[in-house]
Amino acid sequence: MNQKELTFFKNLLLAKKEEILKSIKDTKEEGRDYTTNEVGDSVDIASNSYEREVLFELTDNERKQLSEIDAALQRIEDKTFGECADCSGKISQERLEAIPTATLCITCKSKRDTK
Ligand SMILES: [Zn+2]
User: Fold this and answer.
1) Residue pair 81/11 in contact by the 8 Å Cβ criterion
2) Under the phi-then-psi rule, with left for phi > 0, alpha for psi from -120 to 50, and beta for the rest, what region is 82?
3) Model confidence band, residue 14 (pLDDT cutoffs 50, 70, 90)
4) Which pLDDT tens digit goes with each residue over 48-91?
5) Using CA atoms, how far apart are residues 16 and 27, in angstroms rounded to an integer?
């Protein structure tokens, strides 16, 4: 992969990262509003703690996505971005554009999925 392509994917990953960080921030702010505004009865408290659980789950998922993005950015630095982790073959450009954090080519990915 040439420098131009690497830069393209780097920007793509950075934009994705920005998007996630922004949504985490929004979610947190919503959560705060929710807790401060709702000082209601037991029903509200119950739904409130459920809401909080959901927020925690989201954060975990987003943290995972962020670490995948960071790993992909590291591969760009190492110039190994776009190489399949299993067969060292090239991951197709289309696949990377759809999933820039992909570490496997479509062949290896489908092999793993069917296992
Ligand atoms: Zn492969």
Assistant:
1) no
2) left
3) very high
4) 666 666 555 667 888 899 999 999 999 999 999 999 999 999 99
5) 16
Query: Is the domain of 53 the same as that of 12?
Result: yes
45 with 92, same domain: the answer is no
* Centroid of ligand 1 to alpha carbon of 64 (angstroms): 22
Q: Give 85 Cα–ligand 1 centroid separation in angstroms.
A: 7
Q: Are residues 101 and 53 in the same domain?
A: no
* Structural domain of 103: 82-115
pLDDT band, very low/low/confident/very high, at 114 (cuts 50, 70, 90): confident
How many distinct structural domains can be found in the chain? 2
Q: Are residues 32 and 74 in the same domain?
A: yes
Please report which helix (H) or strand (E) contains residue 115, including its range.
none
110 C-alpha to center of ligand 1: Å? 10
Give residue-wise pLDDT tens across range 22-46: 887 777 677 665 555 555 555 555 5
Give residue for tokens 């197709």: 92
